[in-house]
């Protein structure tokens, strides 16, 4: 097992090649990795996350943000687990990156989904939590449900899983949309149990409904979609009462970034919260939205496409008014933005990936809580974690980036990829 105090700052001082990184963690990983785990009790708490934020005195307090409604103190940088082939080398690199990120003292948010890497990402996180052996109440763990995934470890295809679900009378063929997505309450309940088993947790801090609008709205239309969404929210409220999750939300790609005239894809956040209130009352547990924002996808802070109280405004504003926490995904567009340079004088970081993360965490919007970054190679982990030691920009500094005449430096012609 690892010790937080001994390895504090580890990933900032040691850089290993992928081959040596795999060798470093391989033996330990093989001993720990399982298809399911005995559940760890507990969940993230205010006191626990506050304690985590104090573990590394070299990290500015502004790196951590208090979330709406629950007062959890979460890192503005979190680790995602979407990318990578479903093989053991990628398992080990993800495992090592999670350990190094958490031990840095600057990452206490871990995000996954049951379909990521054919269920393997959840299981890798389960292994990493056991290797870390730090208090459960310091770490915030989220996953997602809705997609019908293959099982990469057991070699079970999606089509077989769908047949099994139908044969068990959990769902009907009509409940499966686009041959890949389901919001039926019985399916979501069974899938959550599977996620908890993969992660080895008694309680999940956050469960997102995964790309529900993107997967179902074009097929169903608004009325039928909202009806199914309400039933899904009812199930998630029940899961809260059962102690399986603490809160829920929606992980999205385009529905909250779409123009109002984009039929069967644009979704008002105001409408979603209205549904949550009808299902769960004023004390409902719909608290989070995950959506992409990056230098090439700036709609959240550049477009007034979300209706709120009869007027259109930015989703950042709507989220603040409704007290919905925003978690940002795809900060580098899967690596594409590593071809888009940013100036060092504005963003105060050496490495390009860290500059893009600094850009996003500095957007002057209190509704943005955490930026998720997928990282596995030790080199990338070390470079991205540079940002945790730098305070976010002030609002004036952020907006100065959009005024080139005020810059002291322009983006480099040649990228520094070291």
TrEMBL record:
Pfam families linked to this entry: Aldo_ket_red
InterPro entries noted in UniProt: AKR2_Oxidoreductase (IPR053135), NADP_OxRdtase_dom (IPR023210)
CDD domains: AKR_unchar
Domain NADP-dependent oxidoreductase stretches: 98-337
Signal peptide start-end: none
UniProt-recorded name of the protein: NADP-dependent oxidoreductase domain-containing protein
Species the sequence originates in: Paramecium octaurelia
């Amino acid at each position: 097992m690892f010790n937080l105090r001994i390895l504090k700052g580890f990933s900032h001082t040691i850089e290993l090649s992928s081959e040596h990184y795999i060798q470093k963690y391989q033996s330990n990983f093989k001993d720990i990795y399982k298809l399911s785990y005995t559940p760890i009790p507990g969940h993230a708490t205010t006191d626990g996350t506050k304690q985590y934020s104090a573990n590394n005195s070299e990290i500015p307090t502004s790196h951590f943000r208090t979330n709406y409604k629950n007062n959890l103190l979460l890192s503005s940088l979190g680790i995602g687990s979407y990318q990578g082939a479903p093989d053991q080398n990628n398992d080990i690199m993800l495992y090592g990156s999670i350990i190094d990120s958490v031990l840095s003292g600057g990452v206490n948010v871990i995000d996954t989904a049951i379909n990521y890497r054919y269920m393997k990402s959840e299981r890798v996180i389960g292994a990493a939590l056991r290797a870390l052996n730090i208090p459960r109440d310091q770490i915030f763990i989220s996953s997602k449900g809705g997609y019908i995934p293959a099982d990469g470890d057991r070699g079970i295809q999606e089509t077989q899983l769908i047949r099994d679900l139908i044969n068990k009378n959990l769902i009907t063929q009509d409940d499966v949309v686009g041959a890949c997505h389901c919001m039926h309450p019985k399916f979501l309940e069974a899938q959550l149990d599977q996620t908890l088993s993969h992660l080895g947790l008694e309680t999940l801090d956050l469960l997102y409904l995964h790309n529900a609008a993107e997967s179902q709205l074009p097929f169903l239309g608004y009325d039928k979609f909202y009806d199914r969404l309400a039933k899904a929210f009812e199930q998630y409220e029940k899961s809260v009462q059962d102690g399986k999750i603490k809160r829920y939300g929606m992980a999205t790609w385009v529905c909250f970034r779409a123009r109002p005239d984009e039929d069967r894809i644009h979704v008002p956040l105001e409408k979603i919260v209205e549904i949550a209130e009808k299902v769960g009352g004023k004390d409902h547990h719909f608290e989070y939205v995950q959506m992409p924002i990056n230098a090439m996808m700036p709609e959240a802070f550049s477009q007034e496409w979300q209706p709120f109280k009869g007027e259109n405004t930015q989703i950042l504003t709507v989220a603040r008014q409704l007290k919905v926490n925003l978690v940002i995904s795809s900060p580098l567009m899967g690596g594409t933005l590593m071809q888009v340079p940013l100036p060092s004088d504005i963003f105060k970081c050496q490495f390009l990936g860290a500059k893009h993360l600094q850009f996003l965490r500095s957007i002057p919007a209190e509704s943005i809580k955490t930026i998720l970054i997928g990282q596995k190679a030790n080199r990338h982990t070390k470079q991205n974690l540079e940002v945790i030691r730098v305070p976010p920009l002030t609002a004036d500094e952020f907006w100065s980036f959009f005024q080139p005449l005020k810059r002291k430096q322009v983006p480099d012609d040649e990228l520094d990829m070291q």
